[in-house]
Amino acid sequence: MEKFYLKHNVPAAVLKGHPWAFAGEIEPRRRRPDDGEGVELCDSRGHSLGSGIWSNHSQIAWRRYSRAVRPFDDAFVNWALGASLARRDKGSFRRLAWSEADHLPGLVIDQFGDILVVQALTAGADRALHCVCNWLRKNLSPREIVLRNDAPVRTREKLQLYVRTESGNPLPPDWVNIEGVDYHLDFLGGQKNGFYLDQREQHLRVARFAAGKRVLDAFCNQGGFGLQAARAGAASVLGLDSSEECVNAARRNAERNKMASTTHFLRANVFDWFTENRPFREPADGPLEAAPAPARNAPVFDLIILDPPPFARNRDSMDGALRGYKELNLRAMRLLAPGGILATYSCSQRVGIETFLGMLSDAASDAHRDARLIELATQPPDHPTLLTFPESHYLKGAILRME
Ligand code: SAH
Fold it and tell me: If you average pLDDT over residues 87-100, what whole number do you get?
């Protein structure tokens, strides 16, 4: 195996256990390995940091797959897939392999019953696809494997974008029952892999508060939170999403699950919707301290879910992202009846749990309300968090009671 060395005196995160090394941190060498080849990386004194997948195109030149020195070959991939499966609880709706957190940088596999959805996001994962599909067929006997290789990050590694079934046969959208609710999933067409598996547990946790309640499911996608709330006996559910495709899917799901009479899904930008549905009429002019008059017909909810897409995609957008989160949470808090529940999430990798709670505390302060933390949330263990890889801890959430 090729051996590379870190530059002298570079405070590279990989020295502290992070699984990435950047091109600028590594001593250049004349021969460059092929994309997706396994290479060894050593610190500047020659101590091995393990084996990683090489990329000549990405800024992340090296992604560790093992702390040992071993090639990235079929034997390794088979071992890593077996180890990932062994780490998972039994079940048929789960993430089976998640990239660096499962020794397989760039490989993501989701299981939806007898359908497996595979994404290869790095050249190494792409090269391993044949082996991965063989292993999956042998060990899980799926009805179909979907190669969902349309994520734009693939272009950074000069990989083509495509979506197809492994068999080459068509796979029409179909009904799939997840935790007692039927969803119409389109593995070849829909957003992401068709369903947010990482929020599956939270759909149920939040539904515990829903019986008899007026529920707002903001950023509802296909209605995961709202439909579980309806199933748990919510008095009414309003779901908001800016995507027409999602709203149509949520409505179709509601019909199928006989929840159409209590649920209502609306295509709306949540920020605009909150602005148009302020609980107070803000003073047009005059002193700002003037107590705002209560607005007539302002909606009131007992349970609000906020599950927005990631706002902070890079360091520069952090401030704006935090303002966005705070604005959303503040507005939601104002629409909650006394004692109401706010279930609020962030899936921005860059927003840590402390920052997230600080933002919620600021929002509660501005809303002049006490927020009591009922429980913290994070991603489920089938989306493992590697402690030395903070990027793998992306989902943060809090369930609050607003007095
Ligand atoms: N709560 C969902 C997942 C939400 S994903 C679940 O548990 O399954 C985020 C959703 O927000 C996407 O469906 C996207 O279409 C929607 N979205 C993004 N920006 C939005 C906006 N400004 N207003 C409303 N919806 C938005």
Answer: 96
Best probe residue, ligand 1, of 185, 222, 240, 241 (max atoms within 8 Å of C-beta):
241
Is the same domain home to 337 and 256?
Answer: yes
Please give the angle made by the CA atoms of 71, 75 and 79, to the nearest 5 degrees. 105
State the total domains in the chain. 3
**Can you give the residue range of the structural domain that contains 112?**
74-171
pLDDT digits 0-9 by tens, 235-289 = 999 999 999 999 999 999 999 999 999 999 999 999 999 998 877 766 666 555 5
The ligand 1 atom nearest the CA atom of 308: 9
| pLDDT (0 to 100) of residue 242 | 96
Among 139, 171, 203, the domain-final residue is 171
Residue where a domain stops, chosen among 148, 171, 194: 171
Q: Is residue 97 part of a domain?
A: yes
